Amino acid sequence: MKNHTLHQLIEDHPQVPFFLKPSWMEVVCPGEWDVIAQEKDGKLQAFIPFRLRNKWGYRIVTTPYLTPHSGPWIAEGMDNGSAIVELAKQMVAYDYVHLSLDPVLKHPVSWNSYLQFSAEPTFILSGSMDDIYPGLQKKLRQQLNQSQGQFKSRAIDADAFFALISQSFQRRSSQVPFSRTLIGRIVMHIRKHRSGDLMGALDANGELLAATLYYEDQNCIYSLLSGQNYAEGPRNAHKWLHYEIIKYGIGQQKGINFMGSKIPGVAFWNSYFGAEVGYYYRIKKHPGGFLTRLDQMRNFWSFSG
Predict the structure, then answer these.
(1) Rounded Cα gap, residues 63 and 24, in angstroms
(2) In what order do the strands lie in the sheet with 152-155?
(3) The pTM is what?
(4) In this predicted structure, which of 25-34, 146-155, 168-177, 192-201 has the lowest mean pLDDT?
(5) 229 and 256 in contact (C-beta within 8 Å)?
(6) CA atoms within 13 A on the CB side of 295
(7) What is the 3-state secondary structure (H, E, C) of 95-145?
(8) For residue 22, which phi and psi values (nearest 5 degrees)?
(9) In the 3-class helix/strand/coil scheme, how is the chain assigned residue by residue?
(10) Beta strands 43-55 and 196-202: pairing type?
(11) Largest Cα–Cα distance in the chain?
């Protein structure tokens, strides 16, 4: 199947999530993405989208920017294990693969010495506020109680958000690995489709203290990226804002995943909210032939010496 036909088939499929569609991939990594798929008689059976770069002559596959909830999509009625194996066979064609994928699949697959699948925990919050609040850490409950009436939430623009997360990165002596333009494209795309927002927590003087970019579908709310104003002091605004989004999500009878970017100082695992554990797949493949030849040469030199 030609690429444009396959992309349209994925885009139009009613069961394919927002994060896996070609339109989203073109927003987060324009011109630098691809998809491997399994299809039969014009029907989509399984696929994985990913960021694809060419560097030093190698084709390098990585997780798309700000898309931690990506993963292999498998059609209803397909066997998960066999579908993953078929996709993995195609993945071997690339030189270097490092993907973090977030489906809930039961069986890790490891059948190739250069391609490894392993399951690692992520956190999904569900339940009612009556169930969740008593389970919060005592200190967190105190901080949330002290925050009542101290902050207000408001939709903010992408430039203000970028300045905020840049500050978070600088505090960790790190550079922002994505551009202001990318953040703007993502915010515009999410708001256009009415599938989330960029919310900030402001104090009584209107000072922006924290912000979170989130996406929601019919079942879940996902935090893509968040940060806080270290110059002003967090003053619990970050936790207050996340708690407000949690209350909104539970009121809509949705689960919440705050995995975020996993970059220290910008987004973090909100396990202190009493989350349940799910799993995502980490797929790794190094350029096996190249590394094997280097290893053989090293052994030869050691033997000769």
Answers:
(1) 13
(2) 152-155, 196-202, 208-216, 220-228, 255-257
(3) 0.79
(4) 168-177
(5) no
(6) 6
(7) CEEEEEECCCCCCCCCCECCEEEEEEEEEEECCCHHHHHHHCCHHHHHHHH
(8) -55, -35
(9) CCHHHHHHHHHHCCCCCHHHCHHHHHHHCCCCEEEEEEEECCEEEEEEEEEEEEECCEEEEECCCCCCCCCCEECCCCCHHHHHHHHHHHHCCCCEEEEEECCCCCCCCCCECCEEEEEEEEEEECCCHHHHHHHCCHHHHHHHHHHCCCCEEEECCHHHHHHHHHHHHHHCCCCCCCCHHHHHHHHHHHHHCCCEEEEEEECCCCCEEEEEEEEECCCEEEEEEEEECCCCCCCCHHHHHHHHHHHHHHHCCCEEECCCCCCCCCCCCCHHHCCEEEEEEEEEECCHHHHHHHHHHHHHHHHHC
(10) unpaired
(11) 75
Helix axes 138-147, 237-251, angle to 10 degrees: 90
Residue found by looking up tokens 């203000």 in the block: 160
Structure tokens of 182?
Answer: 């990318």
Half-sphere exposure in the Cβ direction for 178 (13 Å, CA): 22
Tell me how far the alpha carbon of residue 190 is from its chain's centroid. 15
Taken in order 196, 200, 206, 207, the sign of the CA dihedral is: negative
Cα separation of 36 and 70, whole Å?
14
166-192 tens-digit pLDDT = 887 777 677 777 789 999 999 999 999
Rounded Cα distance, 276 and 123, in Å: 6
Sign of the Cα torsion 156, 157, 163, 169 reads: positive
Closest to 248 measured CA to CA, from 196, 194, 193: 196
